[in-house]
Amino acid sequence: MASITAAIKKPIQRLPWWVGPITVTAVLTGFGIYTMVAVLFFDRGEYANYLSPFYSPPVNSPLPAWLSPAIFVLWLPLGFRATCYYYRKAYYRAFFWDPPACSSKAQQREPRSTENYRGERNLFVWNNIHRYFMYGSFVLLIFLTIDTVRAFLPEGSFGITLGSLIFLVNVTLLWSYSLSCHSLRHIVGGRVDCYSCVTGGNARRKAYSWLSVLNQNHALFAWLSLFSLLITDIYIRLLLAGAVTDLRIL
Amino acid sequence: MEEQEAQQKDMASKAHADVHADEEDAAREGESYKLRIFRGDAEGGREVEYEIPAVEGMVVLDAILYIQAHQAGDLAVRWNCKAAHCGSCSAEINGKPKLLCKARVEEYGGQDIRVHPMRAFPVIKDLVSDVSWNYEVARSTIPFTTDEQAPFEMYEEDVERLYEPKKCIECFMCQDVCHVLRTHQKHEEFAGPRFFVRNQWLEMHPKDTERRVEYLKEGRGGIGYCNITKCCTEVCPAGIHITDNSIIPLKERVADEYYDPAKWLMRKIRGRRSPKTGQIIGRNGNRNGG
Ligand code: SF4
Ligand code: SF4
Ligand code: FES
User: What positions does the domain 2Fe-2S ferredoxin-type occupy (chain B) (predicted)?
Assistant: First the structure.
């Protein structure tokens, strides 16, 4: 395993410094455009017992019909990701080039002058409300988990379909992403300095250690769950368009 | 005596091949390496190219010491342990901070090897930069404070998080690579990743009673300048997850204090809770109830 990672890492490290930031820019922009189009031009994402994660939970919208009610929900996961410590790193590097990469050559390309750099002190100070988006995201996750259970109930009784497996993978990745959140890790145990001094300290320490393991893979979950969201939504749209038929496995 | 020396030589890893005495043994027939080394001082300077005989397992510091011994006696370089422990030989190889004693020449597989001093600090001469600014920041750090008498009785589960920050060898490469210092020159207002590592250790120490969030946010710490872009983590030779395990936990503590309206309200109503004991310790007291 280690040798495989090393074998992949070496050639990646040899790539020019701008490959990383440009790739991230392309992927995040692509995701942004897809979401915008989906939300602005498609008012529903429901097929049989599948509800697209973009539209969950369904809300009654007072807005004109062409504007999807999804926007009442989407701000929450978008806010969660936009203020996430990992995505912050990704977009500061990719979109703001602050810095685009670590080498001296890359840092010379930083567009902001010495005086203009404020880091997370001005506008981006708002990223500090991340924990509130996290709380909200867990509420959403409960809905998405219920949607997943429903996906396993085609025609009312238990069955496994390709769609239900996609839902399962997606919701697992979303839970992994949210549980690996830095703010959660802090609230659960990071803020305690002496576990043996506080009531319930041992349980908190154990939970903290467990979340810390997940946290080490936070970036990985951030990307995988982004793709799984996309794939789930695309799959439902393909079903809606009649382009594919759902594969029944069991 | 001789036996001892021979034994020591045996023990020395190949990475530390002794270029002064042994070069014939390990030298690769006819092969050579080219290095471009910064020669100059605070006023300026230029890269000078040196060619040296290739020795198997050689590290960049070996190459530089060879040059010093055979080609440029006045080449300035700082080093001590040659075992990646003392953090003295930090410099930049091809624009990235490295410990000269740990970077193998072979790793650069035929690429140019360009060695410069750390650029976030003033250059003294050639590869040596003046890192004393870091000691000023160290003095500004709120020291370990306790009302108990050492030796302390502490439990493993309370101190396991303190091992990682303690691995720091003060090479200051994280400071060098940090764009807040290197590119934006915020030396007056920003303590830098090395000192966030230090502050994390202090803050999470079960026996320490001081509060450092004000220092970190309003004071010399300047943690708001850090945009968690992780270059420091990428270069740390001790493998400390500086951003994830030191900076972000401290940013979260700052958020508790300054950016969490619910926490603020609770403090107003109920008073401050001690992260040590969970007890209410009054509105403005320090963490242990002072
Ligand atoms: S994560 Fe913060 S401290 Fe570390 S290099 Fe980046 S800006 Fe500097
Ligand atoms: S934290 Fe790592 S990179 Fe920074 S000074 Fe310590 S050992 Fe060096
Ligand atoms: S830090 Fe990434 S989700 Fe909280």
Answer: 33-119
CB B96 within 8 A of CB B87: no
Beta bridge partners of B22: none
Which residue minimizes the CA distance to atom 4 of ligand 1?
B232
Q: CATH assignment of B132-259, given 1.10.3210.10, 1.10.1060.10, 1.20.910.10, 3.30.300.130? A: 1.10.1060.10
The first and second tokens of residue B97, run together, are: 């901070």
Instruction: Please give the distance of CA B236 from its chain centroid, rounded to a whole number.
Output: 6
pLDDT of residue B283: 53
Distance CA B151, CA B155 (A): 13
CA of A216 from ligand 3 middle (Å) equals 11
Q: For A136-149, how does the pLDDT look when each residue is reduced to its tens digit (9 = 90+)?
A: 999 999 999 999 99
What CATH number was assigned to the domain covering residues B14-129?
A: 3.10.20.30
pLDDT of residue B120: 97
Which stretches in chain A have pLDDT values below 50?
Answer: none
> Degrees (nearest 5) of the Cα angle B229, B234, B240?
105
Complex ipTM over 0.85: yes
Q: Mind telling me how many Å the CA of A90 is from chain B's nearest CA?
A: 7
Q: Are B80 and B67 in contact (CB under 8 A)?
A: no
Indicate the burial class of A81 (C-beta count within 10 angstroms; 0-12, 13-18, 19 or more): buried
The reported pLDDT for the residue numbered A15 is: 87
Minimum CA distance residue for ligand 1 atom 7: B226
Question: Alpha-carbon distance B247 to B232, whole Å?
Answer: 10
Domain assignment of residue A106, yes or no: yes
Q: Which of B140, B170, B160, B153 is nearest to B201 (CA)?
A: B160
What are the residues whose beta carbons fall under 8 Å from the beta carbon of B81, sequence distance 6 or more?
B88, B101
User: What's the confidence (pLDDT) of residue A4?
Assistant: 63
The reply to whether A134 falls in a domain is yes
Task: Please report, for chain B, the start and end positions of each structural domain, with discontinuous segments joined by +.
Answer: 14-129, 132-259
Ranges of chain B with pLDDT below 70? 1-27, 282-290
